[in-house]
Amino acid sequence: LEILVTILNQNENSPVFEQPSLNRTVPEDTKVNATIVAREELSATDADLDTIYYELTATVQGTDGYFAIKGVNNPEIYLQKALDYDKFNLTTLLLYARDRPVSSHEPTNTTTATITIVIEQSDTRAPWFLPCTRIHMDTNVCISSPYSGRVNISELSRDPLPLEPGPIYAIDPDRAIRDRIVYSMVGGNRDNVFSVDADTGNLTMNKIVTSPDPFLLQVMATQASNVRKYSVASVEIKVLNKSLHPPYFEKGIYNGTVFVGLASRSFVWQAGDTSTPLVITAADDDFPDV
């Protein structure tokens, strides 16, 4: 009598990761769909020879959706969404390996691997002129207003010109890099009247201005170690006649009349003439046509 005995495999072993803990440094400008951790480094084995089912989760709030695996049976981790160093620079991923599908009602053995991802900031942004305003905090753009200043005609100033809303100043917004900024004049400087200091951004005069026409200068801020990263700001310089006299009121005293019960924003009338609004005027001998 021949007796055939079939040995049924009991699910008594948990999957095993060769490396239960991994660390990866990922540049901020890594392309979407790029592989972060190869399948060979993450594949688990099972002594029961079961098919392994994988699931990936992120443990750090706000970092879901950036990393994913290629499939339920393929644990290769790839970048699913573009990174932003300002949003987060560190996250921890948990990779679960199960010997049964997630939806299975059978007893399941599970093993977990921990993958720590460190985001390395890349040189992705051009310099920002300050002050500037970010329209949305999740954008890489900061909008600055043009600078403005004034000089007197036929007068040479030896000091850096005061400007509004402040001196020319730019920064590298990639805060983990903070490259040095170099300034240069790239437009609008007719007759080479002005100079900009390469290190400080201070604007000074080389010679006097002989024409009342304003200047619209273009100043470029370039990163010292990456000349492909630059920004250009406008600087409007108005040319004025030098003011030698203070303004003065044409009368020492102005007399007016109002009536009880008038609505807000009603005219004040000249005293003795309730048909003519009271007008207060001043003049300046430096500007007779104003």
Automatic annotation (TrEMBL):
Any single GO BP term: adherens junction organization
Lineage: Eukaryota, Metazoa, Chordata, Craniata, Vertebrata
Protein name: CDHR5 protein
Keyword Cell inner membrane: no
GO cellular component, one term: catenin complex
GO molecular function, one term: calcium ion binding
Gene (name only): Cdhr5
Principal location: membrane
Subcellular location: Membrane
Domain Cadherin: 18-129, 145-249
UniProt keyword Calcium present: yes
Keywords associated with the record: Calcium, Membrane, Repeat
UniProt cross-references to Gene3D superfamilies, sorted A to Z: Cadherins
Species the sequence originates in: Menura novaehollandiae
InterPro entries, A to Z: Cadherin, Cadherin-like_dom, Cadherin-like_sf
